[in-house]
Amino acid sequence: MPIRLHDSLSREPRELRPSQPDGVFRFYNCGPTVYAPAHIGNFRTFVVNDVLRRVLELEFGADKVRHVRNLTDVDDRTIGQSRKEQRPLADITRHWTGIFHEDCAALNLLKPHAEPTATGFIREQVNMIEVLMEKGHAYRAPDGSVYFRLNTFPDYGRLSRIQERELKVTNAVADADHKDSVSDFALWKAYKPEEDGTVQWPGPRTASAGRPGWHIECSAMSKALLGDTIDLHTGGVDLLFPHHENEIAQSECCNSVPFSRHWYHSEHLLVDGTTMSKSKGNYYTLRDLVAKGHEAMALRYALLMGHPRKQLNFTLDSLHAAASALRTLRSVRAAIPGAGGSVDVFAPVLAALQDDLNFPGALGALFATLKSATPADINAALFDRAMFALGLDLSAQAPVAAVPAEVTALAERRWAAKQAKDFKAADALRAEISAAGWTMLDRKDGWSLEPLRK
Ligand code: AMP
Ligand code: ZN
């Protein structure tokens, strides 16, 4: 059975298929802004995308899916945080990237094949802006910023069906005096020392030094890592407008080909029936829940309890229900003999997931099948495949280890030493980190900490 997924552009379910001759399905998921911990709402979106990735792998083969999820590490929010804390931007974003990776691992999210950072792709963003300027889709404003000229892209608004009048109202914010039209949006923001601290790069030709706008980042990273036309682009509903409209405008005007063949947006998580906010006291991160004694895998299960295209209401009661379902799955799994069972729980679970990611349908089918059979009849390998599809790790879970502040400080010092090519100091710091029971994992663009396994 093919995978059918709602397409936000055509507003109907459409089959997912790779379009390139290599048979690789190319999939871009807008990632987190790394200035604070991701909240459980953000993780709803990432869990939905993780199940989608798993279903794609089951359909096309693990080596035929290419999944990119970016990290937004330069924008108003990250810069604002860096100014507030008086710490370099890279320190802030590296710290929160590490935390994000630990949370992702605890929630059993598959790692994307590439996780580009906006600051790692400045050249590509500048190149795209230069093409847009040459083609007359973008212009330099008097302050040295560059704006996209919206009326050069007649298709604008097709995804979110935003009307021109609403657009003018929504976009008529700061900087309006530098733009030719209030509906134009920023591709490049000229450096303002009072706002940007020390964050700046050389700009597109004729523009001032500064930093890219938020939207161009995804257009440029998607092009660089997946090509001009991709198979699927996803995110939470709040990204439909303006982020994804702007991505489409930039990419299609630059590349002269359709940007994404399919768009998918999952709905928001509500907590206690309302949007999360710190002042209402209903704002949760994974760590908040773990500190209250909950298990990360129970949160994953709770996030699977609603249809991704409907708002989901999270309550601590729903988390208890999830934990109880997880206990049932663990005890069933423990009672399944090694081989021989003939009852297939995987096929009905997969069928529901292939049908527009029907999570409640998948969980319903799973429990209905389990109810109709005794553990001795259940096929162990197919049970495990069903757990893979849902991303439920039934092994007893270590709670997300909270990294002690002094270990994080050592890791930050070691990273700085490495950047300064002081490898002797870096090695000494690594030894200190190990002595404290942690291991530091280095990547090109950052690091994370994991407990040392004995
Ligand atoms: P951000 O870190 O704000 O850029 O958001 C990361 C992802 O989380 C985006 O795809 C958002 O659409 C999504 N998101 C933000 N708030 C929620 C929420 N309450 N429920 C589900 N997804 C959300
Ligand atoms: Zn994006």
Radius of gyration: 23 Å
Q: Approximately what portion of the residues adopt beta-strand conformation? A: 5-15%
Shape, please? globular
User: Major sheet, described briefly?
Assistant: 4 strands, parallel
How is this fold's topology laid out?
Layout: E1 4-7, E2 12-15, E3 25-29, H1 40-60, E4 65-69, H2 76-85, H3 89-106, H4 122-134, E5 138-140, E6 146-148, H5 164-171, E7 185-190, H6 193-196, E8 210-212, H7 214-226, E9 232-236, H8 240-255, E10 263-266, E11 269-271, H9 286-291, H10 296-303, E12 312-314, H11 316-335, H12 346-354, H13 359-371, H14 380-390, H15 405-419, H16 423-435, E13 438-443, E14 446-451
Parallel strand pairs: 3-4, 3-9, 9-10, 11-12
Antiparallel strand pairs: 1-2, 5-6, 6-7, 7-8, 13-14
Helix pairs in contact: 2-3, 4-7, 4-8, 7-8, 10-11, 12-13, 12-14, 15-16
Bound molecules: adenosine monophosphate and zinc ion (ZN).
Primary descriptors:
single chain; 454 residues; alpha/beta; 4-stranded parallel sheet; 4-stranded antiparallel sheet; globular; binds adenosine monophosphate; binds zinc ion
